[in-house]
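Quick one: structure tokens for this chain, please?
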Amino acid sequence: MTATGVAEVTREEGRRRAVEELSDPLYGERTPSLLDRIREWVFDLLAGLIEAGSGVVGGWAVLGPLLAVLAVLLVWLVVYLRPSSGRRRGAAVHAEAPLSVADHRAAAERHEAAEEYAAAVTERLRAISVALEERAVLTPRLGRTATELAQEASVVLPGEAGGLSEGARIFNDVAYGDRPATAESARILRELDLRLESARPVAAQEEAR
């Protein structure tokens, strides 16, 4: 017992308590690598504090409030940096009722010519979505995400699975601002649109045999 009557906490015991507190399910079962690095940094910091404070009068009573603040900070970082469920699924291609294929393509061409590449990418994938629905490759559905579009269309058009996946990735990057759209981004979506126009669904290919 210390002079203040509070039991001194050893380094091992302090680390055990810190690990116990920060291992709560609230921190998520799976976190991005950035969060793993932050967590590791926090654990190292806690270990250093516990080692430095093991001889301090008051022991855990002194370190406790500081550890609590660090735990709250870590929780905030996890919540702030963790992708939302919507982000994991991808961005919706159509936020409202779609236009015709021709209208979306015309808009994409105008934006690309004006070097407004983010808008060009968005309109081009919308044109692809409507075109695939009109060809019955996809069932018309408002709210379908770019990722879902790529996954569903790839089943019927496996030869374009790679292009569809890349198109969805570019769209999602633009929608969430992860990467700026470029002339190359717009070109990739435009060429994908052209290829999909002549791509034959798997079912149609099998019936022709």
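Residues 1-9, 24-32, 83-88, 204-209 have pLDDT under 50 and may be disordered.
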